[in-house]
């Protein structure tokens, strides 16, 4: 058994997010092209007698932490006697629509699978991930993927040629934000998934991501759900952004930028003039060789 393992847990953006309708089980059916980006948390796993959690954000050291739940669930399902100390170093904004908690959970499953020598495949781990969160199954592989159902059906796609995106994480807190978004979303905003399938076809054909195909159904209700978000959106448009969308359930928003230099300039301007947290990111793919 290794002495310890360190694995990166990458953030994601939804290049498309269509809500197809409400299911009989109460969840909503979605169609989404999801993409991991190189903004990431770090998960360090060390053998221990029990399953424990340490985080550089102490408010996340709770029984509800998805990484802690992932470790406990894998231990129980695999019948493992050993434990693990899970140490999280956070860089992904919390509760921001970037999938940080789900990514931490998936990284924990993947890492403990190695640490405990279980030999499970990503397919084997998928039911465990699905039970933890809707986004966790996607993070078991990351990269670019078509995601359907409530998030459990993941179909890998080729890498995209979109180079740079700027993510802005507004300091807006809304309790039960995902439920609030779905409650605010009228049935007229439900779509059949055509835009997502069209982007999937473009990615399979040439890897390109035309800006006009970027879409998030929750954009329609962002202003009423997130008080103050309009200032962030208008500021990015005023700085030359052509497309600005919620990242997942928000309140983070993202926009493609044409170059690293331009993205850096906008990020610094947002920080210096407004005091806003912004991240210049690139798509991350598993073949990039990062852990």
Could you characterize what this model shows?
This protein is of the alpha+beta class and 291 residues long. It has 2 domains: 5-157, Ribosomal Protein S5, domain 2; 164-287, GHMP kinase, C-terminal domain (Alpha-Beta Plaits), CATH 3.30.70. The chain is built from 9 helices and 11 strands. The strands form 2 sheets. Strands 1, 2, 3, 4, 5, 6 and 8 form a 7-stranded mixed sheet that branches. It has a 4-stranded antiparallel sheet with strand order 9-10-7-11, covered by helices on one side. Helix 1 packs parallel to helix 2. The longest helix has 16 residues, at 100-115. The chain is globular and about 55 Å long. It starts with a strand and ends in a 10-residue tail after the last strand.
